């Protein structure tokens, strides 16, 4: 039961889930974008990312781990781009957004459920266009791509 703004009480369903991370990883002016099948929505293009695990020291540690697992890229310069509540009526989980540059390539180590994951190097302008036209359908990924593209226009 919850107490509504009008003072009345009523049932409310929500989902408890861990926070997530998404990373705008720039390599030679291109974004790393992963293509992967998701059980609930099918194939999806999105920025690398995943769950903040209990073993992670903080969201940045989770972001570094996820980027290395999915793409093999390590190190670099990391900048927080804030966080979002992608489904505030359903969960209190946040998605922490990161920008990573000056990365070093290495071998990817995807989890078994990510065996079909493919990494694409996409020009930032193309990724922004895909987000604007609704073809980059992971909302936190689209928001982060547009934020990074806007920051490039300002510099």
Descriptive account of the structure:
The protein has one domain (17-154): Alpha-Beta Complex (Nucleoside Triphosphate Pyrophosphohydrolase). The protein is globular and about 55 Å long. It has helices at residues 59-71, 124-132, 139-154; strands at 2-3, 9-10, 20-27, 30-38, 42-46, 49-51, 77-84, 95-101, 118-123. The strands form two sheets. Strands 3, 4, 5, 6, 7, 8 and 9 form a seven-stranded mixed β-sheet that branches. A two-stranded antiparallel ribbon has the order 1-2. A hairpin with a 2-residue loop joins strand 3 (20-27) and strand 4. By secondary structure, it is an alpha+beta fold.
Q: Provide mean pLDDT, rounded.
A: 94
Tertiary shape: globular
CATH superfamily: Nucleoside Triphosphate Pyrophosphohydrolase
Ranges with pLDDT <50 over ≥5 residues? none
Instruction: Tell me the span between the first and last alpha carbons.
Output: 49 Å
Per DSSP, what share of the residues sits in E-state strands of 2 or more residues?
25-35%
> What's the count of strands?
9
CATH fold title: Nucleoside Triphosphate Pyrophosphohydrolase
CATH architecture: Alpha-Beta Complex
Describe the sheet with the most strands. 7 strands, mixed
Helical run tally = 3
Q: Which CATH class applies here?
A: Alpha Beta
Give the SSE order as H and E letters.
Answer: EEEEEEHEEEHH
The helix content, as a percent range, equals 10-25%
The SS-based structural class is: alpha+beta
Q: Which radius of gyration do the C-alpha atoms yield?
A: 17 Å
SSE topology sketch:
Layout: E1 2-3, E2 9-10, E3 20-27, E4 30-38, E5 42-46, E6 49-51, H1 59-71, E7 77-84, E8 95-101, E9 118-123, H2 124-132, H3 139-154
Parallel strand pairs: 3-8
Antiparallel strand pairs: 1-2, 3-4, 3-6, 4-5, 4-9, 7-8
Helix pairs in contact: 2-3
